[in-house]
Task: inverse folding
């Protein structure tokens, strides 16, 4: 019983981290129409930044040269800021061009960051990675309750990102983003500086992915480059599309479903002796899920709810929701 | 350190294969109006089709390479019919097609890995002894790679300029509705675009596998490089893709003289980003 509870807690924690990733991608794709195919780059930058900021200074035997031993809170904030900066750098050459360019450049950046993680031993520990990353309030929370505490922390992060996304739906800023997504020319004609809005949305979504990465780093306590492959981007996309892009609840639901699917199939190999093909078969199914969803249910399980003009006026009149 | 012409030669070998694959990618973008993220997987499929014919069935390498073309083309056409055509018929946007191709790329890459495992494999072919010509080392196989690539590029040029099919393809790429109203059967053009695009990409896959190794991730790993070549030449422009592919290949190989070889893709990426900032319509300008 206790074992199952602990298993469920770990699945829920990972699902929560993916929900934060999916909410970030939802700001990019769902709200603004930005095709970010390198979401894992923000995730990785968030994770490695907080790790480098919080791990102790290296001893002679360790490959890395920087460890600042700062408090975890500083690390997490630093991870978010670093991910936001990456978004700015990535946005400058791409956000003024057609959507496809961002897709190409972001997938490229993610690939190159992986090479940096593998090769720059002084910074990232190389293939061996970074170990012994601190966990927040480790000495204060009793060890047997720690996983629940961490799950609570992740749920809090999901809640914050969700609350932001909800507000975005009703705020003037969010309406501009959706107008850029649906008809950029109309938006420009109304005098909106669309590049600036796109950039802001891109940074916000990037920061969320950085937060997810930081939470992952302090949960896993060890980082290796192999954990930051393109599959993280794929899974987040699948979660968002299946759940319903443009709908924050859909993003969370989709992320939960994808992680549940992944964890449920993790134990299949032992059952049927399919050990060798399960990892690839799983991704084949996930890829098929994307194609089928786009074809037959392009709005996902929970489609975006359009707030009509009349409903909007009513809400404003009655002082909002 | 004196500059070693060997790097330049390696660049021409790699660049000419990238150019072939990039022509395929850019033609498909020009006619179908979406960026096919599964393009790298067609390259991988071409290489594996030849590998099976060559190593498993024991056919001579040249026969195997030729056999790989219709197999890859047939697969590309079947995938278009099942995956892309329904979306096109419903008038789905370019982004739906793009995300669909993203899903297709995961499926194909993992299917290849499921069947052949992730182990790198080699073709059963001779000609690996390096000859020294004018101070550089080159193998007979590498000479063949460059010659085949150049011949195919000339063939594509003749096709696009001298045949009705080529002219209608260019017309469709530059203005689809005008082509449609002039009586061009665009679905027929789409089919021919897949035939030519997937065929060229299959050959590129075989040649790249011949120069290095065949592995399931080879196409996905080259996607960035192919994109860089396409953007460098201007999206949709086949001549630009040739130029872009050669330039990117040479830049990557020459960079090995200065930086770690593991950052070869970073060279392509940097060129691409600089170009997007400076001249997003591509080196040859916006004539497409």
Result:
């Amino acid at each position: 019983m206790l074992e199952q509870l602990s298993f469920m807690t770990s699945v829920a924690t990972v699902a929560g981290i993916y929900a934060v990733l999916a909410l970030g991608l939802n700001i990019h794709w769902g709200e603004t129409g930005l095709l970010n195919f390198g979401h894992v780059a923000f995730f990785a930058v968030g994770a490695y930044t907080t790790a480098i900021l919080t791990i102790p200074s290296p001893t002679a035997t360790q490959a890395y040269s920087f460890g600042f031993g700062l408090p975890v809170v500083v690390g997490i904030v630093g991870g978010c800021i670093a991910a936001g900066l990456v978004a700015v750098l990535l946005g400058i050459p791409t956000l003024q061009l057609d959507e496809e360019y961002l897709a190409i450049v972001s997938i490229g950046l993610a690939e190159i960051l992986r090479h940096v993680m593998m090769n720059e031993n002084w910074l990232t520990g190389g293939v061996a990675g970074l170990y012994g990353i601190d966990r927040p309030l480790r000495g204060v929370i009793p060890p047997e309750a720690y996983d629940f505490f961490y799950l609570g922390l992740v749920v809090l992060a999901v809640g914050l990102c969700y609350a932001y996304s909800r507000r975005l739906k009703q705020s003037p800023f969010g309406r501009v983003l959706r107008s850029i997504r649906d008809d950029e020319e109309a938006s420009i004609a109304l005098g909106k500086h669309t590049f600036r809005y796109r950039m802001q949305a891109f940074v916000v979504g990037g920061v969320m992915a950085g937060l997810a990465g930081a939470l992952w780093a302090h949960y896993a306590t060890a980082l290796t480059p192999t954990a930051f492959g393109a599959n993280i981007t794929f899974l987040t996309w699948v979660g968002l599309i299946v759940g319903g892009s443009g709908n924050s609840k859909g993003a969370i639901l989709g992320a939960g479903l994808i992680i549940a699917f992944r964890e449920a199939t993790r134990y299949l190999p032992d059952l049927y002796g399919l050990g060798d093909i399960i990892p690839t078969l799983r991704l084949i199914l996930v890829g098929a899920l994307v194609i089928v969803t786009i074809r037959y249910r392009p709005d996902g399980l929970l489609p975006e709810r359009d707030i009509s003009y009349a409903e909007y006026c009513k809400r404003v009149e009655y002082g909002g929701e | 350190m004196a500059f070693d012409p060997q790097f330049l030669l390696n660049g021409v070998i790699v660049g000419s294969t990238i150019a072939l694959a990039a022509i395929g990618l850019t033609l498909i973008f020009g006619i179908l109006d979406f960026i096919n993220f599964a393009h790298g997987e067609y390259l991988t499929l071409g290489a594996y089709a030849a590998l099976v014919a060559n190593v498993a069935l024991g056919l001579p390498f040249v026969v195997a390479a030729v056999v790989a073309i219709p197999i890859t083309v047939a697969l590309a056409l079947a995938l278009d019919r099942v995956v892309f055509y329904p979306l096109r018929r419903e008038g789905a946007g370019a982004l739906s097609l793009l995300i669909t191709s993203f899903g297709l790329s995961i499926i194909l890459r993992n299917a290849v890995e499921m069947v052949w495992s992730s182990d790198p494999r080699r073709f059963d072919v001779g000609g690996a002894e390096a000859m020294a010509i004018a101070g550089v080392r080159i193998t007979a196989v590498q000479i063949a790679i460059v010659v085949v690539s150049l011949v195919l590029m000339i063939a594509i040029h003749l096709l696009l300029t001298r045949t009705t099919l080529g002219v209608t393809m260019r017309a469709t790429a530059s203005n689809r509705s005008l082509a449609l109203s002039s009586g061009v059967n665009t679905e027929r053009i789409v089919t021919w675009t897949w035939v030519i695009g997937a065929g060229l990409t299959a050959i590129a896959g075989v040649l790249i596998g011949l120069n290095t190794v065949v592995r399931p991730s080879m196409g996905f790993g080259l996607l960035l490089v192919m994109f860089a070549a396409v953007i460098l030449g201007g999206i949709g422009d086949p001549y630009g893709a040739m130029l872009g592919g050669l330039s990117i290949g040479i830049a990557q190989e020459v960079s090995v003289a200065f930086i770690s070889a593991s950052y070869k893709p970073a060279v392509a990426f940097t060129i691409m980003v600089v170009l997007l900032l400076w001249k997003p319509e591509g080196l040859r300008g916006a004539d497409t």
Q: What stands out?
A: The interface with chain A takes residues 35, 37, 83, 86-87, 92, 94-96, 98-100, 102-107, 109-111, 113-114, 220, 223-224, 227-228, 231, 235, 260, 262-263, 265-266, 268-269, 272-273, 276-277, 280 of chain B (CB under 8 Å). Residues 46 and 91 of chain B are 30 Å apart (CA to CA). Residues 5-223 of chain B form one domain. The first helix of chain B runs from residue 5 to 32.
